[in-house]
Amino acid sequence: MNLIPLPAFSDNYIWLLQHEGRAMVVDPGDAAPVSKWLKENKHSLDCILVTHHHADHTGGVATLKSEWHCEVYGPANEQLPFVYHPLRQGQLVSWESLSFQVMEVPGHTAGHIAYWAQPSDQDPLLFCGDTLFSGGCGRLFEGSPQQMLQSLDHLAALPGKTRVCCAHEYTLSNLKFAMAVEPHNDALQSYKLHCEQQRSQNKPTLPSLLSTELAINPFLRSRHVSVMAAVKGFAPSTSNQEADIFANLRLWKNEFR
Ligand code: ZN
Ligand code: FE
Questions:
Q1: pLDDT tens digits, residue range 94-141?
Q2: Does residue 194 have an active-site annotation?
Q3: Spacing, Cα 52 to ligand 2 middle (Å)
Q4: Which pTM does this prediction carry?
Q5: What per-residue string of b and e applies to 147-169 under the rule 16 or more CB within 10 Å gives b?
Q6: Catalytic pick among 108, 112, 154, 186
Q7: Cβ atoms 26, 207 nearer than 8 A
């Protein structure tokens, strides 16, 4: 089984899994790159997983569905503009030998879900849409800081070897902010060098590893002393409450250039 990031729009990835002529995709915002890959590689499309309702994650679903008559899965707590199997926390989706566990991770949108699976002979896979990015997290369009913090806590509890398949190539700009928050984090400095190298060769920085994210991502580290101190430097009125620290960390990122 192979994991392939198909670039779409300016900075999206549509994640594709393939096995013996069959494929599934996650968040096809555009049908064209998926159709092109399927044609060139002579694969058929079985299944589409959707994490949330934004158009850059759903725009290609209707076209692919009518072309391939594939199964479509998505969040029960959101309305998507096509017929799909609605999923809630703890439900399972099977494709080939994989069984994806559904996790509700509200924050970026109110009904956002993520999909986690443990292949028998490979490291685990997480499709987290716009909830967790490498070095960052999604903007809070529909959820509260408390909700996003809890969602990220659930993702952080997955096995460290989990391959984190984010829906956007935002890594370098996220790491610029992360360096402003934790300038003395050695793991962050070496990861940033690695990612700069990847991008200079036009390669994706993803998937990331959850263990790496725990070491470098300020949004998974908001309870660390260094991150708390930096947030208080940005917003001196920040209390010691974790949701308040997280909220101001997110506000800082929103205005960071
Ligand atoms: Zn989104
Ligand atoms: Fe997006």
A1: 999 999 999 999 999 999 999 999 999 999 999 999 999 999 999 999
A2: no
A3: 9
A4: 0.98
A5: bbbbbbeebbebeeebbbbbbbb
A6: 108
A7: no
Residue 112 annotated as catalytic:
no
Tokens standing for residue 131: 């909830």
pLDDT value, residue 61: 98
Q: What is the DSSP string of 21-56?
A: TEEEEE--S-SHHHHHHHHHTT-EEEEEE-----HH
The predicted pLDDT at position 124 comes to 98
**Choice among 27, 53, 54, 112 that is catalytic:** 54
CA distance 29 to 36: 14
In tens, the pLDDT along 5-54 reads 999 999 999 999 999 999 999 999 999 999 999 999 999 999 999 999 99
Catalytic residue flag (residue 69): no
Residue type, 214: L
Q: Which of 27, 30, 53, 168 is catalytic?
A: 168
User: For this structure, is 108 an active site residue?
Assistant: yes
Query: Above pLDDT 90, what percent of the chain?
Result: 100
Can you say how many angstroms the Cα of residue 36 is from the centroid of all Cα atoms in its chain?
23
Q: Which CATH superfamily is domain 2-255 in?
A: Ribonuclease Z/Hydroxyacylglutathione hydrolase-like (3.60.15.10)
Q: What distance in Å separates the CA atoms of residue 160 and residue 47, rounded to the nearest whole number?
A: 27
Q: Using DSSP bridges, classify how beta strands 92-95 and 98-104 pair: parallel, antiparallel or unpaired.
A: antiparallel
Nearest of 119, 88, 86, 93 to residue 105 by alpha carbon: 88
